[in-house]
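Example 4.3 (complexes with small molecules)
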Amino acid sequence: MTFDRSIKIAPSILSADFANFGAEIQAIEAQGADWVHVDVMDGHFVPNLTFGPPAVKAFRPHVKTVMDVHLMISPVDAYIDAYADAGADILTAHVEAGPHIHRTLQAIRGAGIKAGVALNPGTPASAVEDILDMADMVLVMTVNPGFGGQKFIDMTSKVRKVREMIGDREIHIQIDGGVDPTTAPLVAAAGADVLVAGSAVFRGGSVDAPSVYGDNIKAIRDAAQG
Ligand code: DX5
Ligand code: ZN
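Answer. The structure with D-xylitol-5-phosphate bound is encoded below.
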């Protein structure tokens, strides 16, 4: 993974056909996805359940770009090595998931991969201020995590604060939840560079009609780039 601040679109496979992940991942990458976003949910930190390490490991050979794994689980530390071994390029943990986010980020980097730290809508930007040097990405949630297809919550001022705190450090700002061509420009202007989108990418398309994915990705990217 090299660092730059250009706009990157990361489709969330939470909105893909669950019976056909390999082909879905190949389709979104062929249609312009920059990263592939994998939402891990535990039915405890969030009210939904998704992918264990064996599922993530099965996705890995299909991902040629960046496998971006968003852990919505608590506790998190006990599972870091399993998700790193499953092939994540970057693992993101929530500050709200436990008392020791510094230790969690250390453990992720200790596994030899990039570390992300996520903020729920109710958590202030200041929660990451003192651990920024441990992070390769800050994820600002624009929905309460747990489900795709929710309405965007405007976190623009938080994104600006995080962008200011980061300064010239090589740390991505990711946005997740309700990103579409109308909301993407707001967060991009505030300083975000990695835009996760589930429903806005997969809507209307399929592995048999993949150009719809391409059109959807392009619409978000064009809107974000102004
Ligand atoms: C929400 C997940 C998101 C979700 C985004 O808990 O973290 O990644 O899939 O879905 P959309 O883009 O449909 O809001
Ligand atoms: Zn996510």
